[in-house]
Design a protein that fits this description.
Layout lengths: L1 E2 L26 H20 L11 H24 L9 H30 L1 H10 L5 H19 L3 H4 L1 H10 L10 H29 L6 E2 L9 H20 L7 H17 L5 H4 L2 H47 L1 E4 L8 E4 L1
Antiparallel strand pairs: 1-2, 3-4
Helix pairs in contact: 1-2, 1-8, 2-8, 2-12, 3-7, 3-12, 4-5, 4-12, 5-10, 7-8, 8-9, 10-12
């Protein structure tokens, strides 16, 4: 697992995540194996949903919305698995709990960063609406105002988002979390850890794609090396290769943005400028209504897509937060809570 620009890097920089499948440790019964296989089959189907029929569908707001939906479903699947395993929190190793709280906090931070960027892009919608309003007139003064609004939109969209810039360090932490903890005694724990590994791989991948897209840089891209010891890695590799390759191609071409909807708006803006800026060519003016109409449609599609993506990111935030709160509640009801001096993300240390 490595960042795309890191070149040759240790295959397992954070330890061997597949050590849990060795003959040592608890044996998984046929019943537990059946539960795990069903979970991983569902995970593979969710991965398949993210493989588009065409590369043109990659990195659209609709694809990103679907990716968030898949994350929500997969994290909810983990909650269901814990229930099906009848594995109470007091059976959890304390290290697992610490790792869970650390990961969940990083995911909440990541969601906040994504939400801030989506909100920032949505704020540019007003500038586009002002431009469209002024383009409804034929006066040069209105055209100047439209140009000013379009310039403002371009500057706004190209400005940096400090929260997105911090996603790289969060991704490093999530990448480190892929190292699976040892499971020595509990077969159910072995099943849970293996199932969670698949969901964590999916989560890190989606977060890296979002971070790369929103930062307009490949520095946040990750290439995750997953051995074919489970049923789902071949499907995951196909998905990752397809998406990461397309991101690299788009950046290498110097595209304004990797998101389809932003590119569509920018394309219309570039067509408008030669017509409405400076001296107006009567011949070119004939094409103006069609280009303005296209800008209106692409602007509406961008706004609608951002609204839907906002809802899904909020849903994922809620899934992570409620899972975290549920674990805290279970810990408090089944153990004595004393103040912790160990730091970390938990507000208390649990003593059985």
């Amino acid at each position: 697992m490595s960042r795309a620009q890191d070149g040759n890097r240790s295959f397992f920089p954070f330890g061997n995540p597949f050590r849990m499948i060795s003959p040592k440790g608890p044996k998984i019964t046929s019943q537990l194996l059946s539960v795990l296989q069903a979970f991983e089959a569902t995970l593979e189907e969710r991965l398949k949903k993210l493989i588009p029929e065409s590369k043109d569908e990659i990195l659209s707001l609709s694809w990103m919305t679907l990716a968030m939906q898949v994350l929500c479903e997969s994290h909810n699947d983990i909650k269901t698995l814990i229930t099906d395993l009848e594995m109470p929190v007091n059976d959890w190793d304390e290290k697992w709990i610490d790792v869970y709280f650390d990961i969940s906090m990083k995911l909440l931070d990541m969601c906040n960063a994504f939400s801030s960027e989506i909100s920032r892009m949505s704020q540019g919608h007003l500038l586009l609406q002002c431009a469209l309003h002024n383009l409804g007139s034929s006066s040069s003064e209105q055209y100047d105002r439209a140009c000013s609004s379009l310039d403002g939109w371009k500057q706004h969209i190209c400005s940096e988002n400090v929260r997105i810039e911090k996603c790289g360090s969060i991704l490093d932490g999530l990448l480190a979390s892929l190292d699976l903890p040892k499971v020595k005694k509990l077969a159910k724990g072995k099943v849970l850890v293996q199932a969670m590994y698949g969901v964590k791989v999916l989560t890190v991948f989606v977060c890296s794609v979002f971070a790369a897209s929103f930062s307009r840089s490949t520095k946040n891209m990750l290439d995750l090396n997953v051995a074919d010891v489970y049923s789902w890695p071949p499907t995951f590799k196909r998905l990752q290769n397809l998406v990461n390759e397309e991101i690299r191609v788009r950046f290498s071409c110097g595209r304004f943005a990797v998101l389809n909807e932003l590119e569509s708006v920018d394309s219309s803006v570039k067509e408008l400028y030669p017509i409405i800026q400076g001296v107006v060519d009567p011949i070119k003016m004939e094409s103006l209504p069609g280009i303005v109409g296209e800008l209106g449609r692409s602007t509406a599609k961008l706004s609608q897509g951002l609204d839907l993506l906002t809802k899904e990111v909020d849903s994922f935030f809620h899934v992570v937060l409620t899972g975290r709160d549920a674990l805290l509640s279970n810990l408090r009801s089944g153990a004595t809570v004393i103040p912790s001096n160990m730091g970390g993300n938990r507000n208390a240390q649990i003593v059985n």
